[in-house]
Amino acid sequence: xxxxxxxxxxxxxxPTEALGPAEREEIVALCTRAFGTDFxxxxxxxxxxxxxxxxxxxxxxxxxxxxxxxxxxxxxxxLRTAYLDAVATDPDxxxxxxxxxxxxxxxxxxTGSDLRALSTDRPGFYERxxxxxxLGLTGGRDGDRIVPTPDEIVFISRTPHTPPxxxxxxxxxxxxxGSIW
Length: 181
Ligand SMILES: CC(C)(COP(=O)(O)OP(=O)(O)OC[C@H]1O[C@@H](n2cnc3c(N)ncnc32)[C@H](O)[C@@H]1OP(=O)(O)O)[C@@H](O)C(=O)NCCC(=O)NCCS
What we know:
By secondary structure, the protein is of the alpha+beta class. It has four helices and ten strands, in the order βααβββαβαβββββ. Strands 1, 2, 3, 4, 5, 6, 7, 8, 9 and 10 form a ten-stranded mixed β-sheet that branches. The relative contact order is 0.17.
């Protein structure tokens, strides 16, 4: 049985440019606590993006940010991909259904994309939520060059617009500063 999220969880979405300094600080503080590593560089690789903020009694307890990137399977056409970064929930509230609520809300919002994707070192969480682990090679596209990313654990989630695809094939995404995936 799944754990339902707290009934008074409030979820809002905001583009990065609409975030004020206090909200930016809250996001960095939450991600830093959840990942156990300094997240102040988030703004270097997340520019034109949308954030989801989950609040409980005014406190930020859940976050993710997604932007449109272009994944390609083998030499197939670019897929308009909702790419998630910085999925984090308050460590004091882990296991209370907040992470599931965050991902469910983003899935609803990004249902018009061709694909959803992310990289993680918490594969069990995404497997539990029905995401699929990419089993083939992955890489970053830098012009005509493909930079292999063998250490990344990449997950995808299909939308109603996802074409048939084989998770054993090559998946690439355009290169970006800071972190390819
Ligand atoms: C991963 C994370 C977002 C999960 O958040 P959460 O609020 O604890 O998640 P939920 O309580 O909604 O869990 C949903 C389900 O996933 C399971 N789950 C949570 N974390 C898990 C993990 N690390 N491994 C396996 N299953 C996990 C829960 O048991 C729950 O299962 P259920 O359906 O049986 O109840 C949170 O632990 C976190 O912020 N971790 C640090 C940052 C991070 O690694 N983020 C993800 C990488 S992008």
